[in-house]
Amino acid sequence: MEHYITAPFGTEITTDLHCGDMVYISGIIYTARDAAHKRMKETLDSHKDLPFDIHNNLIYYMGPSPARPGRPIGSAGPTTASRMDFYAPELLDLGLVGMIGKGKRTKEVQEAIVRNKAVYFAAIGGAGALLSKSIKSAEVIAYDDLGTEAIRKLTVENFPCIVVIDSEGNNLYETAIKEYCEL
Amino acid sequence: MLRELDVSLITSTIRDLCIKVTHELSADMISAIHDASEYEKSELGRKILCQLKENLDIAKSDNIPICQDTGMAVIFMEIGQDIHFVGGNLNDAINEGVRKGYTEGYLRKSVVSDPLIRKNTNDNTPAIIHQSIVPGDKVKITLAPKGFGSENMSRVFMLKPAQGIDGVKDAVLTAVKDAGPNACPPMVVGVGIGGDFEKCAILAKKALTREVGSHSEIDYVKDLEVELLKKINKLGIGPAGLGGSTTALAVNVETFATHIAGLPVAVNICCHVNRHESVIL
Could you tell me whether strands A135-142 and A151-165 are parallel, antiparallel, or unpaired per DSSP bridges? Predict the structure, then answer.
C-alpha cells in the first residue's frame, strides 16, 4: 500500500501504516545521529529542554555531505539506526513518533515502538543523491559545532521510505528475508 | 638510477581521485548493479536496484556524492624502490590530497581525531595508508574511501586449521548474515585468508579493490568465490535487506601463507557504493 503523509503527525497516522507499506513524507523532519543523540541524552539527564519539541515529530538518522552553493543540501541518505538504539526508547517515550534510518533495531526499540504506537521507516541506504532531491530546505537548529552531525530541520516533499517496524511490532526485515531464504 | 618524483603530484592525484570515486563508480560496479536489476527475483528488490541506478545517474549529472558517507580515505601505495620523493614528506602530501579533495569536492568530513574524545578533524584526515615497496620506478596509488555502515559489520575470525575450508565458508556466511540490512546490500564481500591477525584484514580490504566479476588465479580460490556468492545470494537478505536474491554482487578472496597453528579469516564487507580507483605515476 502507498501513503502520502505530512509530518509532524500523531498515532492516528502511525496506526494506519503497516509493515511493507511505501510512504511518501512531506513536511518537517529533524536529523540527528550519534553525536547529537549523545548531547540530547545529556540534556535530558540534566533536566533541560531538547533543542526541538519531539512530540509527534520524526527523526531522520542522517548526516549530509556539504551542500554545493545554491543547493539546500548535499547527499543525504540514511545511516545505520542501530547505533541510536541506546537512545531511542527514551525519546519514543517522550513522544517521538517515528524514526527514519536503515538496518536492524533492538528488541528494546521494537517494544518502545509498540508501547508508543510509533513507527520505524527505512530509506534506501546508499541512495543519498536520489534522496536529496526530496529535501527542499535544511537549517541547522542545534549543535552547529558538530558539523555534519548537527541537528537539522528539513523541509521534505514526498520523501520515499518503507515501513519496516509498524506500531504493532511487525518487522519487515524478518518477514521479507524468510520469503527469499533458500538455505 | 633514481627517479625523482615531486610529492605535489601525489597531492594533486589523490585530491582528484577523492572527488572522482565519490561521484562515479567504476564500470564493473555499474554493470553489476544493472545486471542485478534484471535478474533479481523480488519485485521490490528490482525497484530498489533501479533506484540505485538512478542514484548513480543523479550523482554523476548533478555533481553530488553517490552516498553522503564519503568514507574514510583508504590508500594503497605500491612504491617502486627506484623512486626518490622530493618536495616534502610523502605522508603529509597524501593527507594534503585528502584534505583538498574532501574540502574542495564538498565531501563529508567523517573522521574524528581520537576514537574516544571524538572531535571531528573537519578535513577528513588522516587517511589510512598502506605502503609497500616494489621493484621499479613507478608509484601505483589505489584510493578506496570506505563507508562505515558496512565497515562496522566486518569481522576477523581466528579459525583452527582443522576447521579448513568449511570453517571459512561458515565464517563468511555468518558475517554476511549478521550484517544483513545494516551493510546496505547488495554488498561486495572482501575475504582475506591466511597471514596473521592484521595481514588477513588488509588482504580482505585489498580484495574489495579487485574488479567485480574477476576471479582469483588459484583454482580452488576461484571455486570458493563462486560457491560463496551463490550461497550468500540464497540467504534472502536482498537489496536494502528487504528480501530478495541479490545480497552480494561479488565475493573476492585473497590468500597468503600462514602459521602451522592458524587459519585467520577476515571478512571486509562493502556496500553497493564500492569505490576504488588506481593511478600509476
Answer: antiparallel
User: Is residue B185 a part of any domain in this protein?
Assistant: yes
Task: Tell me the per-residue pLDDT of A60-104, one tens digit each, with 9 for 90 and over.
Answer: 999 999 999 999 999 999 999 999 999 999 999 999 999 999 999
Hey, is the C-beta of A158 within 8 angstroms of any chain B C-beta? no
Predicted TM-score (pTM) of the model is: 0.95
Domain containing residue A39: 2-180
A79 CB neighbours in chain B (<8 A) are: 69, 149
State how many domains chain B has: 2
> Does B205 lie in the same domain as B178?
yes
Question: B167 to each of B157, B175, B263, how far by Cα in Å?
Answer: 10, 12, 9
Measure CB to CB from residue A66 to each of B106, B180, B182 and give the nearest one: B106
Confirm whether the ipTM is greater than 0.90: yes
The pLDDT assigned to B114 comes to: 97
Asked if residue B1 has pLDDT above 90, the reply is no
Q: pLDDT of B74-110, one tens digit each?
A: 999 999 999 999 999 999 999 999 999 999 999 999 9
What mean pLDDT, rounded, does chain B reach?
97
- Chain A residues with CB inside 8 Å of B56's CB? 129
Q: Is the pLDDT of residue A183 over 90?
A: no
Is B66's Cβ below 8 Å from some Cβ in A? yes
Q: What is d(CA B122, CA B115) in angstroms, rounded to the nearest whole number?
A: 15
Beta carbons of A149 and A30 less than 8 angstroms apart? no
Nearest to B66 among A71, A128, A173 (CB): A128
Q: How many CB atoms lie within 10 A of CB B74?
A: 21
Radius of gyration from C-alpha coordinates of chain A = 16
Give the domain extent around B111. Answer: 3-20+67-145
Interface test with B, best of A130, A131, A145, A149 (most B CBs within 10 A): A130
Q: Which of A3, A18, A37, A47 is catalytic?
A: A37
Question: Are residues B245 and B131 located together in one domain of the fold?
Answer: no
Amino acid identity for residue B230 in this structure: K
Interface contact A126-B238, CB threshold 8 A: no
Whether A118 has a pLDDT exceeding 90, the answer reads yes
- Identify whether the C-beta of residue B112 lies closer than 8 Å to the C-beta of residue B29: no
Which of B68, B70, B249 should we substitute to test contact with A (largest number of A Cβ atoms within 10 Å)? B68
Q: Which three cell numbers, joined as nine digits, stand for B62?
A: 548533478
Contacts of B68 in chain A (CB under 8 A): 62-65, 74-77, 128, 148
CATH number at residue B103: 3.30.360
Nearest 5°: the CA angle B79, B81, B84 is: 85
Last residue of a domain, one of B145, B166, B193: B145
**Chain CA centroid to CA B265, Å:** 16
Catalytic residue flag (residue A18): no
